[in-house]
């Protein structure tokens, strides 16, 4: 388990409001990407190769190792909006798990979980991720292709291309306000077939 909230949760009262999606803003150098951490309004820009070191050093984001891990998000009762994030290193790449609690409809908070590859969209297409909740003889799985951090996490959530839980469903899988999310990442079958040729 990775019991962490520094892996990070930050509420609206700590940060004001969620930072705007900078994916749509003009970037002077197409080689530079903005900070991918949804917790902070960070003006940093850099090359994709140094995103991981920026997240670790500046935002103190933890990295978990291995193809299969369990991330423990604590304090699920915090008011929306709140984000929990962790980096996951496996198969020679780094991924960013974003779990967000936000109200899509006033008074109805929901939880949104997605994996983002710290890489290009073409690289992201080579992987499949699985998020699994398992508690009290209940199991819920979500499997998808990760999106690239070059895409905006806000867009992924607003598109609904992620695991979505309403509050009552999240409570079925939580234990004393904590939600354990099993994470597994594999190379996609399409990619594996191409490698064999």
Automatic annotation (TrEMBL):
Gene Ontology CC annotation, any one: cytoplasm
EC numbers on record: 2.3.2.27
Domain Seven-in-absentia protein TRAF-like: 89-183
GO MF annotation terms: ubiquitin conjugating enzyme binding; ubiquitin protein ligase activity; zinc ion binding
Gene Ontology biological process: proteasome-mediated ubiquitin-dependent protein catabolic process; protein ubiquitination
PANTHER family in alphabetical order: E3 UBIQUITIN-PROTEIN LIGASE SIAH2 (PTHR45877), SEVEN IN ABSENTIA HOMOLOG 3 (PTHR45877:SF5)
Function noted in UniProt: E3 ubiquitin-protein ligase that mediates ubiquitination and subsequent proteasomal degradation of target proteins. E3 ubiquitin ligases accept ubiquitin from an E2 ubiquitin-conjugating enzyme in the form of a thioester and then directly transfers the ubiquitin to targeted substrates.
Recorded family membership: Belongs to the SINA (Seven in absentia) family.
Domains as described in the record: The SBD domain (substrate-binding domain) mediates the interaction with substrate proteins. It is related to the TRAF family.
Protein's name according to its UniProt entry: E3 ubiquitin-protein ligase
Species of the source: Pluvianellus socialis (Magellanic plover)
């Amino acid at each position: 388990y990775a019991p962490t909230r520094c892996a990070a949760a930050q509420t609206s009262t700590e940060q004001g409001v969620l930072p705007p999606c900078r994916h749509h803003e003009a970037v002077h150098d197409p080689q530079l990407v903005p900070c991918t951490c949804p917790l902070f309004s960070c003006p940093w820009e850099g090359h994709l190769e140094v995103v991981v070191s920026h997240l670790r050093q500046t935002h103190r984001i933890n990295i978990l190792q291995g193809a299969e891990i369990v991330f423990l998000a604590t304090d699920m009762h915090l008011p929306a909006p709140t984000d929990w994030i962790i980096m996951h290193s496996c198969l020679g790449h780094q991924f960013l798990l974003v779990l967000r609690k936000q109200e899509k409809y006033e008074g109805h908070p929901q939880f949104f979980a997605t994996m983002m590859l710290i890489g290009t969209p073409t690289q992201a297409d080579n992987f499949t991720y699985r998020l699994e909740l398992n508690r009290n003889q209940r199991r819920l799985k979500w499997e998808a292709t990760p999106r690239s951090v070059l895409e905006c996490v806000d867009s992924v959530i607003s598109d609904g291309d992620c695991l979505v839980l309403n509050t009552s469903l999240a409570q079925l899988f939580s234990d004393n306000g904590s939600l354990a999310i099993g994470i597994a990442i594999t190379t996609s079958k399409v990619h594996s077939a191409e490698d064999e040729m």
